[in-house]
Amino acid sequence: MYSFLTVPIDIIYRILDHLDILTILLSLRNVCTRFNIVIDDYRPYVTLTDLNLCERHINGSKLQRLSCVLKNNTTITCLDLQQNELVADDAKYLSMILKENHSITTLNLLINEIDSQGMQYLADGLCHNQ
């Protein structure tokens, strides 16, 4: 019986070939160091710079998991969260990303439901993004 730590890398890559990027990023990141190394070295995602999550219902707990992934990511420069029905509470997670991730230079939040309180969270995140 194999544990993930002993599964050959080519088998892991075959599994990854059948998953979409969102599933990989949200499910495997920060589970263990080995997962991070595999994802970081997996060729199709090594140079991923644009993450387009338009109309994917990325809000609430999904956005919370995404924020855990992206706050330490250094390759994503463009994050598109257009039309995800984001609200003020979701802006808190985006603020956490912006406070720690200095690589994101473009953030698309068009057609969401972020109110003035949510904008304050985003502004706070941007103030710490130096």
UniProtKB/TrEMBL annotation:
Listed transmembrane segments: none
Highest taxon of source: Eukaryota
SMART domains linked to this entry: FBOX (SM00256)
Record-annotated F-box domain positions: 1-48
Name under which the protein is recorded: F-box domain-containing protein
Organism of origin: Adineta ricciae
